[in-house]
Amino acid sequence: MFSRFQLMMLVLITLIAAFLSTFAFARPGLPEQAQAVYDAWAPLDAEAKSVEEQLHTLGLAYEELQEMTVQSEEHLEGARQSLAHLIDYAAQEKAGDEQQRQLVEQMLQASRQHTEETQDALDMILSKMLGDPVGQTFGKRSTIKVFSLQEAGYRGYMAKVKLHDPSAVRLVLSGDRVGDRGETTSQAARRTNAVLAVNGGGFTRQNGLLYPIGITVVDGEIKTFYQTDLSFIGFDKNGRLVGGEVKSRKQIKEMNVMHGASFVPTLLKDGKKQPIPAKWRNRKEPRTMIGHFSNGDLLFIVIDGRQKGHSIGVTLEEAQDKLLEFKVRDAYNLDGGGSSTFYYNGKVLNRPSDGRERRMPTNIVILP
Length: 368
What we know:
- The protein is built from five helices and 20 strands.
- By secondary structure, the chain is an alpha+beta fold.
- α1 packs antiparallel against α2.
- The radius of gyration is 48 Å and the shape is elongated.
- The chain starts with a helix and ends with a strand.
């Protein structure tokens, strides 16, 4: 494009040229004046031609600029369309993510509702069978409900435990080491500030010290590993009951076991009775048993025995039937006899068959 000043100059020069031409023809008698005017006009005419050439060049440049502008607008429109597609895609992705989030939330809500319904159903079953709890503890890490068991021929106590924190359930070693004089269940409970405790796995005596048999795990560390023909009873990092036949250290790691001990036999697996070894069959004894329901809640049972007029004990076969009545899924037998002890809220509730608590190398405690 050329400037407004150049346009004005071109128009002015053209007018002057026309005027002079007319004047020259109209006044032929003035050749000298006409020559003088022509001489003055010549530079202006040259400048006019130069301006005209510049205008032509600018016109070509302007046309090229127009073409570039059109192309740029086409590219810009393409970019706008691509951006619009990206925005639509992002909106669809966001909608999909929101839909997926809502679906996950619905699943979680359904799971929570199912758990609550299962919890209510279990409480109703236990209350119908056993009456109201004789003790309840609503702690930050666990909720505990204790029931009294009074069946024909035996007595005992049962605790239903819901863990809110997996670390609330622990196996503790007497003296925090393998090989010690032992401690009673109530001593272990008070030492760890536990509200509930039962005796742990089996043990042997050597040189006046007590040693746990089989596999022992504390805080994820394997403390003993031998006599693997026993049943292992443990808790994983989520506080769930795990166990059964364990033949290698690798299995312990794969099961994410944090705490555990050993004894015999396994009573229930996936809601089905397991075979009772011949030497354990049909013998009424004091028992300590542990199990869990389908929702993961734990069950601790101690049955008194060897005490005529109070409680003669139960067979493992009777225990299996009673556990199935309670809707227990998996269950194991812990050390029984004089070891069976049920501690709750500051005191021993049951009556150990030895007439007093027995010292143990391991005890299972529940923190409130």
